[in-house]
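Z., the sequence and structure:
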Amino acid sequence: MYDLLSPIAIKLGTQHARRLAALSMKLASVVGTKPPPSALRRTVMGIDFPGPAGLAAGFDKNGRLYPCLSRLGFGFAEIGTVTPEHEPGRSHGLAAVTANLARYRLPHAIPLGISISMNRTSHPDRMAQDYLACLGGIWQFADYITINLGVRAGPDLHLTENRPVLQAVLGAVKSEQARLAVSSGIRRPIVVKVDQARRNAGDALACVLEFAFDGLILGGKGSQQAILSTLEQTARKMPDNTPVISVGGIRTPQDAQDRLRAGAALIQLYSGLLESGPRLVDRINTNC
């Protein structure tokens, strides 16, 4: 049934395809599937991941889908991206997301990442404050936190001319991470997402490495060969025990295998789920 409906939904647009995939995931979770084989377990950033395949941010914007994902073979999930204030079509806002997450029991069935960013309308002088507001608001709910630098129709922090703003944001986040770890008694790993397809992505990556975050999410677009080449080069540049998470264009178990062999510690799925539905996760777990 999904094979029949997904091409139609995709032609109607990404949001229609995402809704169809989300519905199929909820239905499939009632039956459930096999958990990832024990051989796929891994410890990344001090967190135990049952498997390498996770849900990418943007698919489950407010965490409503998250409770069913462990029954579909996902090794983790990243929700959001969360912004301080509600933005139609993008974020339900910090207060709405945290109210939803407060209903979930701890510890989580699978690791929960939460992606955060600033509002599109925020002035550059307020960008750091936007990230800090989200960081403090979701600290108690996340297993790890992602700093999403990409904001459509907003300032592009990948650009060289915005490097002072990027440095201010990342420096403020690192300081707040240390403060929250002391005040809460819990240290949350923080990763930064860099889009390798953006202009000056290399400059942004260099800036991220300066601040020694716990990991990197490398977004990919273009040919698989180009994505793998950049992933391999980036993984070699990372300090010891600093993982790279690969996202973008993973549509088949072979794509997943290639990313892991190229140096990714974990992978995140989005477009492949729109095309194949939840069975893609089980196929990856079986073939990796």
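The CA atoms of residues 273 and 280 lie 7 Å apart. Residues 163-184 form the longest helix (22 residues).

Let me know what you think.
H.
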